[in-house]
Design brief:
There is one protein chain. This protein is mainly α. The protein is built from 6 helices and no strands. Bound molecules: zinc ion (2 copies). One zinc ion (ZN) binds next to α2 and α3.
Length: 129
């Protein structure tokens, strides 16, 4: 990339205060950022064309963090975002599966994980997985 400017949709948001108050959030967040930095450093040192994160560990740390937040902090998660296709899809799934069926529970859980990603991931990658 020759353009150093960061597009707003690629910007990593600053985590909210309540995440730092939780040991697990803070730990998972730091691990995620450290792996990101290491991957970026390797990319800058060795040049493009090589996958420096073949195990997708950066994605793994994001998923671990979102899972923890969905399970532990459901009340702190942001509301659905009208402009986000992922939010729309999850919201529809949650609305469709009401009640106490396992399907409803998993729709709620995956919806929460998605909303958790909005807290710490740039808009451009929130909906990727
Ligand atoms: Zn936490
Ligand atoms: Zn969304």
């Amino acid at each position: 990339m020759s353009d150093d400017r960061i597009r707003p949709e690629d910007e990593w948001p600053l985590p909210p205060v309540w995440m730092w108050a939780c040991k697990e959030c803070a730990g998972l967040y730091r691990t995620m950022k450290r792996i990101q930095d290491e991957t970026e450093e390797a990319r800058l040192t060795c040049g493009p064309g090589i996958d420096f994160d073949p195990m997708d560990s950066a994605i793994g740390t994001q998923i671990a963090l979102a899972q923890h937040m969905a399970a532990t902090h459901p009340d702190q998660l942001p509301d659905w975002e009208a402009a986000c296709a992922g939010c729309t899809g999850h919201r529809d799934a949650v609305a469709r599966d009401t009640g106490s069926s396992p399907r409803a529970a998993s729709a709620t859980h995956f919806g929460n994980e998605h909303r958790a990603r909005h807290v710490f991931a740039p808009p451009s990658i929130v909906g990727l997985y």
